[in-house]
């Protein structure tokens, strides 16, 4: 194996990565991280191609283009990772890239030896890989996953390759020149980075697809406007809570909440005002819930709450607290907002009412609360 074959392998890996990332970005153009990753792979591929074709010749313009394209690719990769994790624009990577540009140009002007330039390149690449590793490590500490572990392993492999190259350039510079056919040099300069680059691009794509799956799961369970459980997820949770209450012999309360005069809010302020009222109502109700309570949007301006372990006396207390809390809450330009609540209680032992029956009872009580003047609760008897 020689430099041309090993370099071609690295170039092909990077070009394939660029095409795949470009395809992902084309499919989801709002995702800026994939654009950065596609540009990164393209810059690395062209940078390596220029360096391999140059063959170690002292063509300064070609050397500047090739090496700085390689460094730019790593900076773009780092920026893409920061963008993926929704972090603000950083300066460290760009400063490191600018420092490499200046130092590399300075070494060329001083007619520095190839090992000196190779050492600067390896140290700069190692610095960029450490920045990338830190960004992924921070993300993995909050959301560990197979993709994040694969990405960290790939970065670890790349760091190992460049540590070997740095050591080789310092101890045996002639054997670690870019055009050297030494097996260890080829492995550390081309083959290892090709394998690491393939694993890294796969890890980044898996990270992206993991986010898509998580977002799809979230949309399947949660109402987009209110951020609470949607009707389907609420029904599944309600059935689960009823079964658990029946098994343990514990009470459970179901509450239906409706915004009073919601049509008037829409007519006066438009549908945007109605959406803001629903979103603010969801926040207000959530603030009055315990960690074990469940809150969902049942439809329109109607919410449903499930209170495990709350009996009849507790249901009345909870209902009154919710009504008073909304009555006192500032809804901004929407104006005064009140709610009506219908409550149904499943006593526990001996009570065989199903989730559907509880929903019907709570809905019927909500209708009574509306009929009796709104801004109040109605609790089902017995």
Secondary-structure element string: HHHHHHHHEHEEHEHE
The amount of helix comes to 55-70%
Estimate what percentage of residues fall within beta strands. Answer: 5-15%
Unreliably modeled segments: none
Spatial sequence of strands, sheet with the most strands? 2-3-1-4-5
Shape: elongated
The largest pleated sheet is described as:
5 strands, mixed
Gap from first CA to last CA: 85 Å
CATH topology of the largest domain: Rhopdopsin 7-helix transmembrane proteins
Radius of gyration: 31 Å
Treating each run of at least 4 consecutive H or I residues as one helix, how many helices?
A: 11
What is the strand tally?
A: 5
What count of domains describes the coordinates?
Answer: 2
Which CATH class of the largest domain is shown? Mainly Alpha
Write up this protein.
With 382 residues, the protein is an alpha+beta fold. It has two domains: 219 residues, Rhopdopsin 7-helix transmembrane proteins (Up-down Bundle); 149 residues, Alpha-Beta Plaits (2-Layer Sandwich). The chain has eleven helices and five strands; from the N terminus they run ααααααααβαββαβαβ. The protein has a five-stranded mixed β-sheet with strand order 2-3-1-4-5, sandwiched between helices. Strand 2 and strand 3 form a beta hairpin. The radius of gyration is 31 Å and the shape is elongated.
């Amino acid at each position: 194996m020689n430099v041309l074959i090993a370099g071609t392998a690295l170039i092909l890996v990077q070009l394939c990565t660029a095409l795949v990332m470009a395809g992902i970005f084309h499919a989801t153009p709002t995702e800026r991280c994939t654009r950065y990753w596609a540009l990164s792979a393209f810059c690395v591929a062209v940078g390596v191609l220029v360096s391999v074709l140059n063959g170690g010749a002292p063509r300064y313009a070609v050397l500047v283009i090739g090496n700085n394209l390689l460094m730019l690719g790593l900076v773009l990769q780092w920026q893409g990772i920061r963008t993926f994790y929704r972090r603000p624009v950083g300066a460290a990577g760009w400063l490191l890239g600018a420092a490499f540009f200046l130092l590399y140009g300075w070494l060329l002007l001083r007619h520095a030896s190839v090992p000196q330039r190779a050492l600067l390149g390896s140290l700069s690449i190692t610095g960029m890989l450490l920045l990338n590793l830190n960004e992924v490590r921070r993300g993995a500490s909050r959301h560990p996953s197979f993709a994040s572990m694969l990405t960290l392993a790939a970065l670890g492999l790349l760091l190992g390759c460049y540590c070997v190259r740095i050591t080789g350039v310092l101890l045996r510079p002639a054997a670690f020149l870019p055009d050297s056919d030494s097996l260890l040099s080829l492995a550390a300069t081309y083959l290892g980075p090709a394998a690491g680059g393939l694993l890294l691009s796969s890890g980044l794509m898996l990270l992206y697809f993991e986010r898509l799956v998580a977002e799809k799961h979230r949309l399947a369970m949660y109402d987009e406007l209110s951020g609470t459980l949607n009707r389907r997820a609420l029904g599944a949770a309600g059935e689960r809570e009823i079964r658990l209450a029946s098994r343990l012999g514990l009470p459970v309360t179901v509450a239906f909440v409706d915004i009073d005069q919601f049509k008037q809010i829409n007519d006066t302020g438009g549908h945007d005002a109605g959406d803001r009222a629903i979103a603010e109502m969801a926040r207000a109700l959530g603030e009055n819930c315990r960690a074990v309570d469940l809150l969902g949007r049942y439809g329109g301006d109607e919410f449903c709450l499930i209170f495990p372990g709350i009996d009849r006396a507790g249901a009345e207390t909870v209902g009154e607290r919710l009504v008073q809390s909304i009555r006192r809450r500032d809804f901004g330009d929407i104006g005064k907002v009140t709610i009506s609540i219908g409550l149904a209680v499943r006593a526990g032992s001996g009570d065989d009412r199903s989730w559907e029956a509880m929903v019907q009872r709570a809905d019927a009580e909500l209708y009574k609360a509306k009929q009796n003047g709104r801004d109040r609760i109605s609790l089902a008897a017995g």
